[in-house]
Amino acid sequence: MSDIGTRISHYEVLEKLGGGGMGVVYKARDSKLNRLVALKFLPPEVSRDEEANARFTREAQMASALNHPNICTIHEIDETEDGRLFIAMSLYEGQTLKGMLRNAPLEIDLALDLAGQIASGLAAAHEKGIVHRDIKPANIFVDEKGRAVILDFGLAKLAGAAALTMTGSTLGTISYMSPEQAQATEVDHRTDIWALGALLHEMLSGQKPFPGDYDQAVVYNILNTEPEPLTRLNPDLPVEIEAIVLKALQKDREQRHSTVEEFLADLYAIDGKQVAGTVIGRRSSKRRRVQAYLGIALVAIIAVSALLSRGLGGSDSIDSIAVLPLINMSGDPDQEYFADGMTEVLIGALAKMSALKVIARQSVMQYKGSTKPISEIAAELGVDAIVEGSVYREGNMVRVRASLILAATDQSLWSEEFDHEFRNVLALHSEVARAIAAEIEVAVTPDEAALLADTAPVDPDAYEAYLKGRFHWYRFTPADMARATEYFLLAIEEDSTYAAAYVGYSDAIATPAHLGLIPTKEIYPVAKAATQKALVLDDNSEEAHDVFARISWAWDWDWEKPEAHFKRAIELNPNYPDARAVYSQYLSFLGRHEEALSQAQTAEEIDPLNSWFHLEHAQRLAEQGRYDEAITIFKQVAENDPELPVVYMYMWHTLYASGHWAEAADAGSKRYAAFGDSEIAAVLVDAKDEVGYRDVTRRAAEILEARAENSHVSAKWIAELWAHAGDDDRAIDWLEKAVDNRETALVYAFIGPEFASAREDPRSETIRTRMKDRRPD
To answer: Which of 81, 86, 491, 654 could pair with 465 as two cysteines, CB 3.0-4.6 Å apart?
Structure first.
């Protein structure tokens, strides 16, 4: 904000006390009244956000309306000359309840006294229709006289008022969230009662009622498990107190105390003290115990979070990692694209480090919503550590909470929250990646460090459209591809300098054409131009180099240029499996089969649960004539992922080449059914031997030939059927037509097992020559 000694209005700034995602606090002197106060400012990156400013003002207005000894006193709200809002509030000497606990229980009478005071303050807030929603030890300050003061009504929700946050926004701290808050459903005053019960449980036992080394475990326990009995954790505790805590922590809020007054009545009834009329907090000689507990007086308002110390035990052995899908804390299912996108960006940032094996997106997304133990997930992915966390967006601010868990012990090595403006979200993920790299002491080259630091701001609207495009792209259906294209175009419209949007658009329109679903001539010139634009805007985009290499090979029919771009993509992101998989196809096309197999296997290791990479591995085996090995993998993929269309396409060709006629017919039928052609699927049945198989594939080829006279049909598809029918001459005729059509899938005719016989025909070499002659200048 400002240097020490700066004057703001009639306040002189003396020292910085602390800061968090939504506030920075300074100690200051009020020159008018000659008193010490605390000034709370929005951090610079937030202050430009109108919504955050509105929330900040609301915090002051609501808290100032609560004149209660157990609620922080607000003196005024004002703004600096440059328009930054600040709140002037009472300055307390003491420490937070978080500082008092330190994983050890408080004396029973002290815990009850503090709980009564906190409840008294909450009752006053609830009476005015205000729900705090973030009661936790860090938000309870205990002064030198033992008075408990509730801080930070910045997350409070005024009942009946229009919410300034996103609808259903899940705010708060996970360990103290009620079940309804964790599930992002509507909350009322009973969510504070739950948090009060969790707080009292921790004060009496020294342990959180719903522990967990990572967010998903905590949320699971909140929703599904019961806390360990307090009387077991603290044998000196009366069972009556345990009953009060358990009632406050009922998962069904209808079963909790209906009001904080009812909670207080139960609490005070233990020692015969009843509540009559207004709520009266306990006041006793236990103040002396509080003072002894505090020791030296500390001046603080909120705790300052910091990274855990580097080099924790065992972390130096981490050389492989997986990022589990970040939890969507918005509570809005329509925001899943955002959480998934944030997961992908974090993976991408970590993946730039060549010394670290990082599991790719498709494999980790299979654990979305999973309750499997971290150690089990890590074993299935073959990694040493797991990164998990949550993300939520409020207005123009994004908060990511990330934790690093050692797989072998389920030990949480590091945890931190990161806040950035939405436009700086790429910098946020680079910051997280750098923090993780420092924690596990992984070597980062100067070039990699430069790439991590090269995170220009993005237009928020363009980035949001891009994330939605990626979300639909990964669903990989024709309808989703069309939706993805629309979102990528919208991103380009919002920001014509956004390179990633051009790459996404190119990939989204080119994929259906490459599969043979639409004519390539109408699509690939546009896709190529978009990719070239992306490279001009960002030559350090691995996706742009990868897609440009694909287009150069499959559309331009250039056999030399693609390799440099494939290698550059892999250099920029050694953990990018997509580039390695298609590079393996290209290497096979060049006859470099061992290199091709190695790249396919590396892609498979990076993304071990992604069926596509298993198929690429198997296909490289098939291209080397290792049919039995390939078929084994194909069948495993088909069993595990029966809805994947390309598995039947790959398997079909290999079963045919190895003479498994009945199985080949079945796979071919499923391949056409998956692409929506029920007529051909119905033809490719009941082939029990070679004669029958040749007959059904010939009939299927004739049907597609007739269809091609009036509508688009891939010439390569027809060539495949003629090859399966044993008519190499007709197959080559249609491959010639594929040259005329400039079909990008034609490159696979020179490596696929279905054309092994046709490639022995001298005419096949003329096809390659014609392709070479038609290269662009």
So the answer is: 491
